[in-house]
Amino acid sequence: MSTVAGKLVAVTGGARGIGLAIAAALVERGARVALGDIDVEEAQQAAQRLGPGALAFEADVTSIASFGAFIGGAEEQFGQPLDVLVNNAGIMWVGRFDEEPEAAEQRQMDVNFHGVVRGMKLAIPEMRARGRGHVVNVASAASKLPTAGEATYSATKHAVYGYSVAVREELRGSGIQVSVIMPVVVDTELATGTSTGKGVRLQPSDVADAVVSAIEKPRFDVFVPRSIAAWTRLTAVLPQPGRDALYRAMMPNQAEDADAGSRVAYEDRNVLRHP
């Protein structure tokens, strides 16, 4: 039997994409999953498809009240304390740094970074009181390998990584695990119109499998694919000219390569919050 079976797992951004794939993989392995999403109707439809192991809740990660109600509602409805929080909700604006609207900068930071912080502050104290629990933060390979044309997005993922490192150290000996998942480009709406450079384009199920694996066998750094770990070590030791050459040969430049026109609908709805 899977070691996630019977655990209560809350997943933010669970209505679609990576979040939904994570929820599906967990339900399949016997976990009890709370799907939280700002689009509660879509989350409810997703939960119905997943079956009785999943329930949907409204969750706006930019609101401490909404996030807290999500976790509290999940614990009440399932009748057990939260075992695992998966901070998955995230958004991305793509383009040249000096053309990025301030509203896009602020919302990415509020969702991608402060949303993670809110979740950890809400979930971890009760986990620490019980002496067990796990927080899984879905970040990005951009946490270690920032991408041109994704300046603010990369900054938010750097922030998630740094915050997770520091909190993990504070939790040493507490029985609480922290993991950071760092995938390359994933085939979701968030990545519409973006380039992968010389890399591969993952499927949401690839990230879901990595999350399940990290819950079953806890570890901190989780790169998807694993080969990215070697890339990060190489860029850390190369002199700057070599690092620059490697970046230009292998990494995408979204400021030049992304199809901005195909991203308008996604960014208007999710980043700039235009109706």
Automatic annotation (TrEMBL):
<dbReference type="GO" id="GO:0016491">
    <property type="term" value="F:oxidoreductase activity"/>
</dbReference>
<keyword id="KW-0560">Oxidoreductase</keyword>
<dbReference type="InterPro" id="IPR020904">
    <property type="entry name" value="Sc_DH/Rdtase_CS"/>
</dbReference>
<comment type="similarity">
    <text>Belongs to the short-chain dehydrogenases/reductases (SDR) family.</text>
</comment>
<protein>
    <submittedName>
        <fullName>Short-chain dehydrogenase/reductase SDR</fullName>
    </submittedName>
</protein>
<keyword id="KW-0521">NADP</keyword>
<dbReference type="Pfam" id="PF00106">
    <property type="entry name" value="adh_short"/>
</dbReference>
<dbReference type="InterPro" id="IPR036291">
    <property type="entry name" value="NAD(P)-bd_dom_sf"/>
</dbReference>
<dbReference type="InterPro" id="IPR002347">
    <property type="entry name" value="SDR_fam"/>
</dbReference>
